[in-house]
């Protein structure tokens, strides 16, 4: 098997991708992927090698992803807007051999210290990227992606289901980000589970692809399930409600997956006509709790029934979905066929009917663990294969799941996981910071925002703007505090543990 085969069986004339106004048929996509497999093989990419992708939602991401999988190599999707220090840490963590860089990541890549990532032997640049990085001069070890597309094609390498396919950075259920190991079998299993159950993308659908593909839902549902069904995906780099509605209307979009901030923006977009979603048969959301009032506004104003689901990177990702089911506002739907779920109480027993319990997940979609981190892997994977999510839920008599709490300390900004530990680590590296505590606070547009409480060091002269810029230099923007409060001390218990709930 090989997950890259998911594009093989479809009509060569059918449109697979629409990117920057350009259609790519399934026949053209298969041809481009085959040539890029040959090109990557020609620069030394072999089974097991890591190919990092600093690319947004576009054709280059898709063909690089599929070509990498097809060689038996490991795809590492990274946020192209991350600052150089974050990119360095992630590339070093996975020992990336090749990095594919598009223009939006050019400035950050230019700031990467190549000595900090000695495993990287080649940089593949998409159109116009080299000139942005070098100002037109040569860049050692770089090659244009268009050159690789001229290479002779090579066939797909068949692999075992447990062969590593993707390393996806996630904060996991606790702690700082680490690379989750997802196999070909894990990803294929969730595609099969979603295809046979409620997720509901069909061959005739046109899917709005704005969820970033360095996020697991964007990668394996929006992209993966669309291609597996032979449907069409409209790839969108940035979200703007006005242009999004134009695209939905002009392209006849039928499926719109999006994180809550996108749907909140639509719900407050007063200029949008009532028939804005006339072509849409399926509207999906997840990644964070969707405000119930916003769901009602979307229904009353646009006639749009929003289907919530639940998943996580470690489950490849979908665990539950309400798509195709009678709507129960507040529920994340029912468990997919082929996935087992338990609700477990604090003593480790199954929670009594009606009581809340931690969601445990088991199935062929559950990941292999965290790269080079057996200790954290053991904390979330039991000996008999159950994934302990840290999320708390109840279930009703009809089998609908309701989230009542989530992994402790987790902050969700625009659908992306932010763990306080990572932000705290960066802030404490500032020479003027003695201690720091980070929490999430409600935000009308992003769901939550990051707020930091800082104890200055003796004699330090700090201000809020200075520390926010410090974070922006080291972390992706969505992880950075929007508010910093200076305090004389942090609340701690008798054992010295930070009491986050006391931070307001």
The poorly predicted ranges are none
Shape: globular
Strand order of the largest sheet: 4-3-5-6-7
How far is the N terminus from the C terminus? 52 Å
SS-derived structural category:
alpha/beta
User: What is the CATH C-level name of the largest domain?
Assistant: Alpha Beta
Q: What's the β-strand tally?
A: 26
| Rg (CA only) | 23 Å
CATH-scheme architecture of the largest domain = 3-Layer(aba) Sandwich
Q: Residue share in helices?
A: 25-40%
The CATH topology of the largest domain comes to Rossmann fold
β-sheet strand percentage: 25-35%
Count up the helices. Answer: 14
Q: How many separate domains make up the residues?
A: 3
Oligomer: single chain
CATH superfamily of the largest domain: ANL, N-terminal domain
Major beta sheet summary: 5 strands, parallel
Please render the helix and strand layout as text.
Layout: E1 15-19, E2 22-25, H1 26-42, E3 50-54, H2 59-70, E4 74-78, H3 84-94, E5 98-101, H4 106-110, E6 122-125, H5 129-134, E7 142-144, H6 145-148, E8 164-170, E9 178-183, H7 184-196, E10 206-209, H8 216-229, E11 232-235, H9 241-251, E12 255-258, H10 260-267, E13 282-285, H11 292-302, E14 306-311, E15 318-321, E16 334-335, E17 340-344, E18 357-362, E19 369-370, H12 374-380, E20 387-395, E21 401-405, E22 411-413, E23 416-418, H13 420-428, E24 433-443, E25 447-456, H14 464-472, E26 483-486
Parallel strand pairs: 1-11, 3-4, 3-5, 5-6, 6-7, 10-11, 12-13, 13-14, 25-26
Antiparallel strand pairs: 1-2, 8-9, 9-19, 14-15, 15-16, 17-18, 18-20, 20-21, 22-23, 24-25
């Amino acid at each position: 098997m090989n997950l890259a085969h998911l594009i093989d069986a479809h009509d060569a004339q059918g449109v697979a991708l629409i990117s920057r106004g350009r259609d790519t048929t399934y026949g053209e996509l298969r041809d481009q992927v085959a040539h890029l497999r040959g090109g990557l093989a020609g620069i030394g990419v072999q089974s097991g090698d890591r190919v990092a992708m600093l690319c947004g939602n576009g054709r280059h991401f898709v063909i690089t992803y599929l070509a990498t999988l097809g060689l038996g190599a490991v795809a590492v999707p990274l946020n192209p807007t991350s600052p150089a220090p974050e990119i360095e840490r992630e590339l070093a963590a996975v020992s990336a051999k090749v990095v594919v860089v598009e223009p939006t990541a050019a400035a950050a890549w230019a700031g990467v210290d190549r000595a900090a990532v000695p495993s990287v032997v080649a940089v593949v640049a998409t159109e116009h990227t080299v000139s942005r990085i070098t100002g037109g001069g040569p860049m050692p070890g770089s090659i244009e992606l268009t050159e690789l597309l001229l290479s002779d094609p090579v066939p797909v390498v068949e692999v075992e289901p447990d062969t590593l396919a993707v390393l996806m950075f996630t904060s996991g259920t606790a702690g700082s980000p680490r690379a989750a190991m997802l196999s070909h079998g894990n990803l294929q299993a969730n595609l099969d589970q979603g295809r046979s159950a409620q997720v509901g993308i069909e061959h005739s659908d046109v899917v709005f692809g704005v969820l970033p593909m360095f996020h697991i839902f964007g990668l394996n549902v929006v992209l993966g399930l669309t291609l597996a069904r032979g449907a069409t995906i409209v790839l969108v780099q940035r979200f703007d409600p006005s242009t999004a509605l134009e695209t939905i209307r002009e392209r006849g979009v039928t499926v719109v997956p999006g994180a809550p901030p996108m749907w909140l923006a639509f719900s407050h977009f007063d200029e949008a006509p009532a028939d804005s979603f006339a072509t849409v048969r399926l509207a999906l959301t997840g990644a964070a709790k969707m405000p119930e009032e916003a769901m009602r506004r979307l229904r009353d104003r646009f006639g749009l029934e929003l289907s919530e689901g639940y998943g996580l990177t470690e489950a490849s990702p979908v665990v539950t979905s309400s798509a195709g089911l009678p709507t129960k506002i507040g529920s994340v739907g029912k468990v997919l066929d082929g996935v087992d779920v338990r609700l477990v109480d604090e003593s480790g027993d199954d929670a009594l009917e009606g009581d809340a319990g931690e969601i445990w997940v088991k199935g062929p979609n559950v990941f292999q663990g965290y790269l080079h981190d057996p200790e954290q892997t053991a904390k979330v994977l039991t000996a008999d294969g159950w994934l302990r999510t840290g999320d708390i839920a109840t279930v009703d008599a009809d089998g609908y799941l309701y989230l009542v709490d989530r992994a402790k300390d987790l902050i969700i900004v625009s659908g992306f996981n932010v763990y306080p530990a990572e932000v705290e680590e960066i802030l404490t590296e500032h020479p003027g910071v003695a201690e720091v505590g980070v929490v999430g606070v409600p935000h009308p547009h992003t769901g939550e925002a990051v707020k930091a409480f800082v104890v200055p060091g003796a004699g330090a002269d700090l201000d809020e703007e200075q520390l926010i810029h410090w974070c922006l230099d080291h972390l992706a923007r969505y992880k950075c505090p929007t508010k910093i409060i200076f305090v004389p001390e942090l609340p701690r218990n008798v054992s010295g543990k930070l009491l986050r709930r006391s931070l307001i």
